[in-house]
């Protein structure tokens, strides 16, 4: 079960018309493609995707790109929008989102249920985690990783004994418990859970009947279970795919504009921490049938070029310079434009003599000739969204342009 119903409000205007899992990432993907690809690559081919907030573009993407699984072989990606199946309310929390689909879950007759968030970037072999769960005769297994104490306030923090059993769980504490022998380091939950199916159903019903519960896995379900049942922690490094020795396993929460920009910029490095070119663990997505990217003009003052950049199909760079940037599909950059350190989402047109530096352009933007963005933050802040780290987010609405396409 992939929980993909959240807005991701910290992404500001980027999620005004789409849920966070539908936000484009990495030049041609959407965020939800990463947990979905992890499932398929792990051999998990019965997948439910729980949606709620402004899900149209997400549902369209899943329909177009993830309908290749065959129902005849009992494999599927099933869409589970909020539909008030149990009571007259929308999903009230992560646990309630699963509870309201309990009748559908029971119909699958599975032995285990894997519950994932739909809004993080990482590669993980869930099969390793399922094997760990079975070997430890666990009721619940929680994927975990180390973070700094400063970062821990955004996570559920766990204390683990020498047998990997969770003995304490606190959701987003102000003062987290540090790992013994590792000052400044904290063990946190990744929001990835393996439950024994019957046990999960029992606990969801119990939590639903509790009027004091907020019906959330991190706030309510897990703290209750830790004191009463066999809850174990599975270290992410044991199932992370494509990790390099001496480098922390790759996992990114792209929940802010700054984090989103930084994670995309990592992709432009010579050897990025996340390998998108890995044939053994590919990231699947929906791909339009587009012509190859095209670079035209080779005059000294008018050369179509891209350096340290990712350029997708359908793009035309016409006598312009692109450096350390990602261009998603169907981006047209006109002559004498200069683009640096920017993330350009699909179907964008950039006019002549435009300058972009540290900019995120939303889908469908048309940048008029001569405009400069990312050069003067004071002027940019009058029209656009400028972050604390100086990243400028631009949407069609900010430019006074009405958008009629699905985001």
From TrEMBL:
The keyword Transferase applies. GO terms for biological process: glycogen biosynthetic process. Alpha-D-glucose 1-phosphate binds at residues 91, 156, 171-172, 189. GO terms for molecular function: ATP binding; glucose-1-phosphate adenylyltransferase activity. The keyword Phosphoprotein does not apply. Keywords: ATP-binding, Carbohydrate metabolism, Glycogen biosynthesis, Glycogen metabolism, Nucleotide-binding, Nucleotidyltransferase, Transferase. Belongs to the bacterial/plant glucose-1-phosphate adenylyltransferase family. Homotetramer. This is Glucose-1-phosphate adenylyltransferase. It comes from Sulfurimicrobium lacus. The gene is glgC.
């Amino acid at each position: 079960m992939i929980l993909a119903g959240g807005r991701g409000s910290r992404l500001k205007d980027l999620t005004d018309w789409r849920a966070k899992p539908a936000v484009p990432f990495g030049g041609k993907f959407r965020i939800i493609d990463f947990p979905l690809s992890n499932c398929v690559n792990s051999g998990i081919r019965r997948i439910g995707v729980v949606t709620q907030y402004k899900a149209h573009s997400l549902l369209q993407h899943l329909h177009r790109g993830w309908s290749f699984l065959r129902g005849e072989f009992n494999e599927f990606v099933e869409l589970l929008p909020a539909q008030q199946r149990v009571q007259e309310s929308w999903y009230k929390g992560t646990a309630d989102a699963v509870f309201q689909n309990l009748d559908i879950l029971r119909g699958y007759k599975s032995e285990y249920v894997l519950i994932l968030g739909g809004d993080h970037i990482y590669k993980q072999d869930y099969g390793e985690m399922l094997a760990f769960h079975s070997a430890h005769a666990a009721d619940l297994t929680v994927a975990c990783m180390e973070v700094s104490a400063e970062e821990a306030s955004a996570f559920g923090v766990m204390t683990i004994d020498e047998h990997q059993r969770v003995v304490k769980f606190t959701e987003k504490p102000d003062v987290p418990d540090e790992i013994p022998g590792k000052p400044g380091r904290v063990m946190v939950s990744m929001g990835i859970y393996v439950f024994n199916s019957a046990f999960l159903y029992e606990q969801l019903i119990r939590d639903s009947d509790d009027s004091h519960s907020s019906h959330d896995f991190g706030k309510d379900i897990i703290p209750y279970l830790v004191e009463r049942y066999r809850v174990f922690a599975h270290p992410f490094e044991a199932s992370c795919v494509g990790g390099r020795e001496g480098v922390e396993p790759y996992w990114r929460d792209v929940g802010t504009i700054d984090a989103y920009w930084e994670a995309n910029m990592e992709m432009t490095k010579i050897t990025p921490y996340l390998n998108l070119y890995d044939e053994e663990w590919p990231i699947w997505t929906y791909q339009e049938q587009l012509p190859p990217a095209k670079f035209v003009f080779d005059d000294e003052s008018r050369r179509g070029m891209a350096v340290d950049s990712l350029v997708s199909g359908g793009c035309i760079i016409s006598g312009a310079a692109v450096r350390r940037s990602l261009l998603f599909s169907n981006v047209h950059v006109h002559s004498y434009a200069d683009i640096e350190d920017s993330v350009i989402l699909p179907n964008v047109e950039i006019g002549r003599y435009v300058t972009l530096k540290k900019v995120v352009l939303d889908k469908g933007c048309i940048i008029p000739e001569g405009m400069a963005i990312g050069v003067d933050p004071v002027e940019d802040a009058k029209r656009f969204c400028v972050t604390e780290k100086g990243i400028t987010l631009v949407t069609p609405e900010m430019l006074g342009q009405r958008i009629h396409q699905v985001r």
